Amino acid sequence: MNATSGLALAVFIGMLLPLQALINAALGRQTFGPLFAALMSFAVGTIVLAVWWTASRPTFEAAALAKVPWWAWTGGAIGAVYVAAATLLVPRMGAAALICAVVFGQVVGSLLLDHFGVLHTRTPIDPLRVVGALLVVAGALLVVKPWQSAA
To answer: pTM for the full model?
Structure first.
């Protein structure tokens, strides 16, 4: 995959995230609430990933799992918190406000993780990166417009 197709795929995935939150919120309204909807989202996702992984004909050695550090298993918990929170929040905030807040959090978190070299090569925060983060904040504020009351 080249850089252009990788970027296009990332943008497409980004476009699907608010739709996922809206779909999960609708499922929650029509069934047993947002946590049930998040659970079903993960259940369906688990099935899809299991089929995809099996179709890729993977090699599997159970002994390799014992060598994995404990924190490597926390990604699923983080994903569950995101999906459940998005399912709860999207009806209250709207898709655009939710995603803007999430993107802002991702930018701040990414800057900090890069700066301290958490799990990858260190990339210190510099003034240009701070300006970029501030532009994201400004863009999010223009989309969300918290100074205006809902009509």
So the answer is: 0.84
